[in-house]
Amino acid sequence: MKKLLISLAAALLVILAAVLILPRGPEIAEPVDEHCGIPESWENTIAYVPLDDRPDNLENVILMAEASGWHIVIPEPRLFRTALDGQEPNPNGTQYGDREELLLWVRRMDELGCDLFLLSADQLLSGGLVNSRAMQDSLPLELPEGRLSEEDAFDAYIMALGDDPANRVYLFDSVARLASTVGYGGFGTEEYTALRAYGNVERPLLGYEELSLESVFAAYPFAADGITGAEAEVSDAEGPAVLTEELISAYLSARERKLSLTDHIISAVKGSENFRLLIGIDDSSSLPNIQRNELAYIEKCLGENAVLIAGLDSLARLMIASATQEEYGLGVKTCVEFIGGSQDIPASDYDLYTASQVAEKHMTLLSAESVPEAEAELQVLILTPPDDTLRSEEYFGAAVDRLCENAERHIPTVFIDASRNAYGEAFETALLENAELSRLMGFSGRYYQANVIGTGFAMGFSRYIYLRCGDTSEALPHVSQLKQLVYSAEMCYPFALHVREELNSYVTGLGLDPNNIICDDRTMQSILDKASELMDTYGSALRNNFEGSRLPCKAEPGSDAEIVTADIYELRLPWNRTFEISFRVSAGLGE
């Protein structure tokens, strides 16, 4: 990578802002603001523009990058924040990110010497994921060159990075989901339900030669016969009365804008050696819905440096894993094993592909070689919902037994709980009392199948490759690995299984909406205090699982560090809703 000298003043600022991380004793987590500014060196540094400010796209991405030997620099969070209805707007006066300032930030990082970029197209062109679903018309950007269209701004600021042959740009984009976000732009639960049903109506499927932007758009309004309006197929129970002509028009316009921008990005990066493009499919279904022609068109247009994959909140982490794999050129011999028996059927109404299909796609993305268990360097265990509920205990018992066996045999392992908590507290208890989560290369759970599989693959592969090929003498990567394991496990078990339901009841009891909490600071603090109390109560077994356990710090056995402490503090609700929670992790390692 190219290296440029940074000015003495900038270097001094970094030194003053730095937090010394020691390999022994408790360590205080850094806030994300510490990743703003100019680094002392650009070596192994990624300039990152997040999809939005939720933990899956911010804290967890930073931790995973650090656990793999990378450093992350980000814009000021105020520039990519999403504000739901009724919340304080951003400094630019909108509910979405500041597109102009973010593009200027990317250019500045390039001018200062950065040569590795991880960029969300949705953030740069639409101000974030939520606004990309709702924005009906193209909105020109006011930049130093003058007023530029979204496409021209992308070319001038993002494609221009390719002018430097030393630059590598990892770009990710999304396919619009079936309905927009509740609590944004006046969009409520009734509208969400009705429009998701409308989008899920079967559409006329276009043949390969028929696929074009115009033909995809022309098929949007119609049901499968190409004549009947799709709204006529929505049942009363799904709220057809809400489907006004105005609402449908806005919905289709937003889809047209989104697909048009994706089409421009695909065409722009095609054939460029500097760019990698990953396009994620947001929640969908296995029905031939409004997304099907969009997906077929995207697949038709993709170049060799672009991939369409299921999942969305896993994309940034997958790109970091791809960057790690390309940096070291290691193709990992991998054995994937499913436990639960339902890997060949979609896990829910929101999944387009089966777990086995999703896993296969991720193996290809990360240049992994599928091998039998006896030949594997890395094992990926994926727990699916049980194909027979009478066998639930057998399945989760097998998962726990395999994790314990692999830990004893020092087999690098990724564990992906793609069951959506189908095994409940019995599995949680068995897992936390018997298995050592700290021994894992990667762990993910809680969310929909595609996201958790992508996240688990990204964490596990990136960490394993780093331990095999990177400089493992620094303390920061190991502390960050512990933090991301704690973060993922806290979200999957205490929070998803116990805390969120009770927190929802508490918020509702205050007369507030858990999906968008509008209240004064004192009330919000009481909600956070309640969340902290609940996380402390239900998280004790998880803390016991980590503390006193050991973390692998090299690829070979006998290189483990003792975990002195693993706790969470300073809880917050990033979007003032209870769907996700954020916190800082106090993690300390002994020798």
Describe the structure.
It is a single chain. This protein has helices spanning 8-17, 59-67, 99-112, 121-126, 129-134, 150-157, 189-200, 213-219, 245-269, 291-301, 315-328, 355-365, 392-408, 424-434, 449-469, 476-509, 521-538, 540-546; strands at residues 45-49, 71-73, 116-120, 141-143, 146-148, 168-175, 275-281, 306-310, 333-339, 369-370, 378-383, 413-417, 442-445, 550-552, 560-572, 582-589. With 591 residues, the chain is an alpha/beta fold. The strands form 4 sheets. The chain has a 6-stranded parallel β-sheet, sandwiched between helices. Strands 10-9-11-12-13 form a 5-stranded parallel β-sheet, sandwiched between helices.
Please bin the fraction of helical residues.
40-55%
Shape by Cα distribution:
globular
Q: What fraction of the residues are assigned to beta strands by DSSP?
A: 5-15%
Biggest β-sheet: count, sense, barrel?
A: 6 strands, parallel
- Count of helical regions: 18
Low-pLDDT segments, ≥5 res: 1-30
Average pLDDT metric: 93
End-to-end separation in angstroms reads 32 Å
Biggest sheet, strands in spatial order? Answer: 2-1-3-6-7-8
Which oligomerization state do the chains in this entry correspond to? single chain
